[in-house]
Amino acid sequence: MAFGLEMGDRTVGEAVRRIAVERIDGAIDAIDDPEVTPEKAVHTVRKRCKELRALVRLVAPAFGDAKAENRAFRDIARSLSGHRDAQVMSASFEALVAGRVETLDAAAVDAVRTALREEAAPAEGDDTGEALREAREALAAARLRALAWSLDAKGWNALGEGLEGTYRDARRGMRKALASEDGHRMHEWRKDAKSHANQLDLVAPVWPRVLKRVVKEAESLGEDLGDHHDLEVLSDWLERHCERLGGHDAVAPLIALCRVRQAELARSARSAGERLFAEKPQAFGRRMRGLWSAWRRERSAAEVPAPPAAAPAETMAG
Questions:
Q1: pLDDT under 70: residue ranges of the chain
Q2: Sequential DSSP letters for 126-189
Q3: Per-domain boundaries in the chain
Q4: pTM here?
Q5: Which fold does the domain 1-82+126-153 belong to in CATH?
C-alpha cells in the first residue's frame, strides 16, 4: 500500500484516486480486523485521515470538492478522539518522569498517575466500538466518492501549487512559532509541518534516494512538535488540578520539568526546521518541478512504445 506516486500511474488524477482508496481501505481493514484492538484501530484510522487530508490539500487548487472532503476526514478523526488526551497525557507523563522518579515527590507522582488513569478510563456508556462502526460507514461513503474524484488540472499543474503552498505555510508557521515558542503556535506549526511531510512522501518517488531521507527528517520534526504539544496539554492540566494533586508546591516541580523538556524539543525543532525550510517557497517549488520533469523523462524512457495504430494514451504529463 504505497503512499506515493508510482510508475504505473498514468495520470495524477488516477494516482490520487488510487492513493485515497488505499488509505481508506487501510482504515477500514483496521476496524474490521478482530485481532486489532479498538485503541489501535482508532490510532490507525486517525493516522489515515491525516494522510488523506494531506492528499486532498496537495491537489486542492485543482480539486473542487477539496474543502468538503477535508471536512469529512477531519470529522471522522474527531469522532474518535474520545479519551485520547488523557491517554496521551499519561504516556507523556511517564516519559517525562522516567529515570527521575527518585528526585521527585513520590506522593505527587503517584497522585498524578492515579488521576490520569482515572481520566483515561472509559466513561460509563462510552462505546468506542459504536464510534468505530460509525467511522466505518463514513469511510465507506468516502471511498465511493474517492473513486469518482476528478481534478481540473493535469501533471505538475495538479500538484505544484498545493505542494508549494503547504511548504510556505509550514515555513511561515516555523517563524512565528520559534519567535515566541508559544504552545499554540508550536502546535499550529506542527500541523503544517506534518502535512508537508505527508505531501513530500507522496511525491518522494520522483527522487526517492534523497527525498525519503528528507521525509524522515520532516517526520522527526513532527514528532518533536507533537511531544511539545502533549507536554503543553499536560502542564496545563497539572496547573488546573494542582489542588487535587497535592497542592502547588507538589506540582510545581513537575510543571517545571515539562518546561525544561519543551525547551529541549524546541531547540531540536529549530535545528531541523531551519534546514527543512531553508529555501524560499518559490525556490522549493522550482526544484520540485525540476525533479518531477526528470522523473517524467525517466518514465517515458522506460515505457514500451505503443503500436502505431494505437490511440495516444493519457499520461502524467497531459
A1: 1-2, 83-84, 122-126, 303-318
A2: --HHHHHHHHHHHHHHHHHHHTT---SS-GGGGTHHHHHHHHHHHHHHHHHHHHH--HHHHHHH
A3: 1-82+126-153, 83-123+159-301
A4: 0.89
A5: Four Helix Bundle (Hemerythrin (Met), subunit A) (1.20.120)
